[in-house]
């Protein structure tokens, strides 16, 4: 059990807020959690999700002392298990250091066929079709796409600098001519995709199209670690033999060259 303040928050190193000033302890518990999460370098979308999960957790505790058993019970009953595991390990590291859960069994992801994707596409309106096309051809996340700068001359998408530490996308391309990205919110797109999935009977959400993009690239013989880098991830194989190149050019310019190569393969 956590001694003293029931809502005492710790950083990942186990000390109180690390570099935060003592004045932080005069803040409300929810604000202290917010500060700890912001210091982790997460995005605002992730922050909102974490804060909502924390509010649900506090309601779940019903003023009971915070214990490892209580945290485990909450996580097992929660809908967002992975998010809650990460959250609890951030704010209660001492209580969760020995917390273990059964490994998830591998579940094969069944992607819709090209014909099914076309059927889903036909059920969208013109604005939604543009978003669908750009997501499928660029491999970007929906949030990155909606905030990206579009260069119609070079058919290039340039996402804004990402504030998080775990997700990075530098630049991407698309094939179908598009002059501008429709002004629409992420939640609205997700809702419209959900409604169209129900109408057509084909389950497609914006994030699924990243997997479709990876499948299309793989069919064209692009190595998996290049596909991962194209989508913003990094693989150790990706850097083997490339250290001298990285010394001579910036990472952004290097990614542009690699991704242009990938788009040329897609156009074949």
Describe this structure as you would to a colleague.
By secondary structure, the protein is an all-alpha fold. The chain has 2 domains: 75 residues, no CATH class; 153 residues, Intergrase catalytic core (hpI Integrase, Chain A, Orthogonal Bundle), CATH 1.10.443. It is 53% helix and 3% strand. It has 14 helices and 3 strands. Strands 1-2-3 form a 3-stranded antiparallel beta sheet, with helices on one face. Helix 3 runs antiparallel to helix 4, helix 7 packs across helix 10 and helix 11 crosses helix 14. The protein is elongated and about 60 Å long.
Write a concise synopsis of the structure shown.
The chain is mainly alpha-helical and 268 residues long. It has helices at 29-39, 44-61, 68-77, 81-91, 93-96, 114-122, 126-138, 142-146, 186-200, 208-219, 224-230, 236-239, 243-248, 251-266; strands spanning 149-151, 156-158, 172-173.
In percent terms, what proportion of residues is strand?
A: under 5%
CATH class of the largest domain: Mainly Alpha
Structural class: mainly alpha
| Average residue pLDDT | 75
Separate helix tally:
14
């Amino acid at each position: 059990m956590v001694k003293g303040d029931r809502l005492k928050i710790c950083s990942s190193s186990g000390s109180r807020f690390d570099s935060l000033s003592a004045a932080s302890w005069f803040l409300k518990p929810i604000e202290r959690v917010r500060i700890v999460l912001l210091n982790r370098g997460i995005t605002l979308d992730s922050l909102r999700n974490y804060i909502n999960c924390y509010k649900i957790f506090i309601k779940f505790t019903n003023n009971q002392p915070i214990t490892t058993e209580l945290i485990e019970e909450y996580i097992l009953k929660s809908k967002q298990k992975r998010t809650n595991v990460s959250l609890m390990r951030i704010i209660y590291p001492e209580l969760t250091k020995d917390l273990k859960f059964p490994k998830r069994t591998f579940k094969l992801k069944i992607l819709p066929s090209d014909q099914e994707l076309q059927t889903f596409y036909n059920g969208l309106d013109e604005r939604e079709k543009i978003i669908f096309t750009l997501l499928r051809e660029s491999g970007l996340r929906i949030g990155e796409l909606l905030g990206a700068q579009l260069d119609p001359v070079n058919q290039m998408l340039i996402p804004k600098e990402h504030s998080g530490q775990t997700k990075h996308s530098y630049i991407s391309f698309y094939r179908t001519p598009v002059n501008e990205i429709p002004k629409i919110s992420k939640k609205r797109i997700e809702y419209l995709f959900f409604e169209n999935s129900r109408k057509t009977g084909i389950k497609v959400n914006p994030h699924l199209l990243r997997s479709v993009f990876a499948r299309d690239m793989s069919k064209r013989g692009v190595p998996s670690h290049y596909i991962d880098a194209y989508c913003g991830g990094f693989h150790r194989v990706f850097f083997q033999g490339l250290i001298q190149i990285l010394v001579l050019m910036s990472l952004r310019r290097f990614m542009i060259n690699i991704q242009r190569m990938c788009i040329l393969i897609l156009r074949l």
